[in-house]
Each structure stands twice: as C-alpha cells, then as structure tokens.
C-alpha cells in the first residue's frame, strides 16, 4: 500500500445509512439524492497554511475549522447540509497530523450529518479546499440581495472574540486578557446551521450572510446587493466578557471588524421580531437586534445619543499587504 | 478595488439563462435546481504546481485541463454537467496569467454548458481545486462495481500519447517523435461527456471509469470493486500514429500505464456490442473492444497467440518517489 492510499484510508468511511448519499468515496463521482423539488446550495473555500492558519496549527482544531467555515456558508443560506468534498495537499504523509485532523473534521461532520462524499489527496504545500452541498426549499434561501429598507438588522451570538484571540497570539500591545478564554472562538467556530434553517423557515426574515471578514465589511455585501444603507446602534452590539477589559476603541474595532466570527448577520421585517427571537431560542443561539436598514446608502454607527461614531475599521483583503 | 476583487472579476460572469443555476457567484452559496428526481454526481480534484503541471505551464491550457480532468469524472459516471466551483491559490495577482487562464477555463465550461457557480481566491502557492456537479438518472450511473464476468472491456479513443508528450518534454532517451504531434493530448485532454451520457443510456453498459493513472492501474479499480479479473488483447489496443516509432516495450508501457489519458474504460454485456458502437458513433468518439472480464481475479495481457505478455508497468502514486 502506498503512502497515498494510507492517507486516503483516513478519509474513507462508509456513508451513513438513511442519508442523501447513494454512493460515497471511491468511484469517479459520489452520488447524492436530494429531497425532491429542493434546490442545491453549494459553497467552496480554500485554506492555505501561513495565510488562513498558522504553520504548525493544531491539526484537530484545523480539521474542525476547515469544515466549520464552509458549513457556516450553508447556515447563512438557510440550507440543510447534504455532504462535502475535501481536496488536501500535504507536504508529506504524516500519521501524527492526519489522525487528529480527520478526528476534528469528522466530529463536526457527524454532528451535522454532513458526510464526506469525495476527495483528492496530493503532495504539495499544506492546502485544504472544501466544497459543501446543502439543500433548501425553493424561494426560502436567505440571499444577500433580499433586504428591504426598514428591516431590522440582527446578529447571532457575539463578534470580536476571534480577533482578540489573534491579537493575544500575536502579542499586539493593546490586547488584554487570557488567550484560553477566547481561543476556541478563533480555532473552533460554531456554524449556526440550526439557526439558519430556522430563519429560512421564518416568515419575514429576508437577507443573511455569515460574518467572516468583519461585521461592517460583510454588512457592506448585503447593502450593496440590496441597494440599501444601514444604521448600527453601537450600544446594542453584544459584548463578550473577554472584551470588557479592552479600551473602547479597540473593543469597537473587534466588534465591527474583527473577522473569523462566523456569526449570522441577517435582516427581517420588524413584524417578525418575536418570530426571530423564537427562531434563536429554538436553535439555542442568542440573537440581537443591532440596527436597521435604510434607503440612504452606506452605513452609520451611532452612539447612545444617536451621534455618528468615527470608525477606522476596514475589511480584510487576502491580497492586501504582504 | 483590491487585488482580490480584481481577480474575482475574472471569474464573475452571469449564470447562463435556462440552465440549472438559480443563483451564481457572489452570495454565501450558489443555488442550483437539478432536474426533479435525478441524482447529483459530485467530484473534486486538486492540481498543484510542480506536481500536476510544470512550473510556468501555459495558463490557457492549464485552465482547460483543470476543468477537463474534473469533467472527465462526470463523463465516467455518465452524468450531465450542472456547474463547478473553483478554489484558487495564487502567489500574486498577475493579469498576464489570470486572463488566459480564465479564457481556457471558460471556453471548455461554455462548450459543455457547465457554468462556474462559486469560488474562492487567495494568496498562496499556485494550487487549483475544482469541484464539479452533474446529474444522472437514478440507477443509470456507470459505477465501478457494476461489471460482470463475461462483459466486454471497451476503451474510448487511444491511450499513451500524453505519456509520450511527457517523455519528449523531459527528454527521456527512449522517446521518439515530435512533441507538437502529441502535446495537446497531455495539455488539453478532451472529457468524453457525450460518450459517457450515451453509454449511461445504453442497455447492457455496466461499469466505467476514466483512465487518468494508466489503463492497467485504473482497470484494477473496476476489477477490485467488481470482484473480477480481466484479459486484455494487446493486439486490440488502438495505437496512435505517434507511438508507432517507439520500441515495442515502451509502446506497450505508454498504452497500458501512460497516465493523463482521460479516455473512458468501460464494460458491457456482449449483447450490447452494436449499441456500444452506436453510442460511440453518436458521440463522435471511436470505441474499441480491448478485452473481456473474467471471474478469475487479476489481469492478464495476451499477445496475438493468446500467450501472456510480461508487463512491467505500474500505476502512478502521487506520494511514491520524491
């Protein structure tokens, strides 16, 4: 048996019975049987060592995160996971890396009934590329272009902790607190799948996306796609205890432009307020109304007195800087 | 506009009207509407510079090949393409590379009505990861485990030219001939999509795969999955004119273990002989009966007198050697 087959063995598992998978890993293609009439939701991400994760990152957490960030895209669409593929370039076949990586990957896959249905493994600089598939009822997907002026702007969970974890790891001088309190928010994000599906089934919920590059930057995608603006109530933003020790400016930076949050940012008609809270409760995730959509383009961040705050935050561009 | 957005622009095109794409590039997920009742076929591949293609490879041909090898997996399943995703790591945003790469990629995508529906672009060592989706009628997919003893073994087109092109590029001493006569067989393989769909619709056609790692090595996958053996008639193997000048041993190596052929290898009940020829004719691809499946495990290669030939060829393992 070659090294190549040895690696493949870590990822070859029988497809679970009763799911959508007709034929799993091992043929030219996997075969899936989606629910009749449903639409297929597809998303892909690539993670490169040294760019999306530190060289030497703990492989079990990496296995979790690689899938989590993709599942988060399904969540943001309101889709139910069907399965995923994994393409993996590795510098060498290292059992001590592969075993925990597969463990982290499959623990999350199993928790969300999202089996691995196909893959490719090759030698190369450590790079992971996942593609996830889900299904959603026609017309129920939470698209970015579906927001309307007057919609409430909602956020699941809390933003900023992953950014603080990054700062603590890097030793950025403004960072305060214990890495242990926030590192899982960076290393093991929780895809909000149950919430996304509950929201897709809730009348009056309109646009959604997952916050991966910072709240304001990602809000901009909804605003651009929907041709709208927004006003955010800074005081309404939920603040994690770990962020309380930061100075106000860096705290706001973390909240509004942190990145790596994988929370859902979504809009809903004000009449859906109680239903949105109920969707959050059913999914076990806090949801907070943080602002409102407006006809006037651009975003504003307002303090408790309704005055504009100056925001220096900006989005994250994978090709910006070195 | 960031470098990142500049790159994304090369790949952002409106989804074609009338196809399966409900929502294309630009949201958290793409949305597709497969034909009701059909199964979804999915395959993924990763191509790494220096491993799957030469550093400095011509980008237009690379764009073609990256999609072609994935479409070939759909062809081998008998599936009709619905769309694909592309994850791309690039050392830098280089217009002179991106433009021809996108041209080669989209020319093939358009020819097969297989739109790009999602993607991810990041900085990193040049790596391409594609995932293709297709659809096939339930029960009609050409699976590797479907062969039966007594089936004819068929091959589309001809094998070996891509291997000769590699040898000429590398200057391997046994190689003879003009690179120009064979290089497109290595750089611009033709996915046999029309043939695969015609075969999936042909009664009596059973197992299939695409030959990417050499005929014998890939035949082994059908034999293993189906629990069978096979006898190949060496004299029946179609030989490209470019291989005629080689010594007999290297010619047979190219035919049986060349790699990068992307032809279909498939089995069919002998009663389907005429129907298989008709499927080939309808798809415009030559199909040749090259052997037969047997109950006894393993493969044999027989000369014109029915004697076993000694074959030194072996499969290609991406982790074998340096």
Tags for this entry?
33% helix, disordered C terminus, magnesium ion binding (chains A, B), homodimer, Phosphoribosyl-aminoimidazole Synthetase, Chain A, domain 2, 60s Ribosomal Protein L30, Chain: A, six-stranded mixed beta sheet
Can you give a write-up of this model?
The structure is a homodimer of 322-residue chains. Helix content of chain A is 33%, strand content 25%. With 322 residues, chain A is of the alpha+beta class. The first copy, chain A, has a six-stranded mixed sheet, sandwiched between helices. Chain A has a four-stranded mixed sheet with strand order 3-6-4-5. In chain A, helix 3 links the parallel strand 4 and strand 5. Chain A is globular, with a radius of gyration of 20 Å. At the A-B interface, helix 1, strand 2, strand 3, helix 2 and strand 4 of A face helix 1, strand 2, strand 3, helix 2 and strand 4 of B.
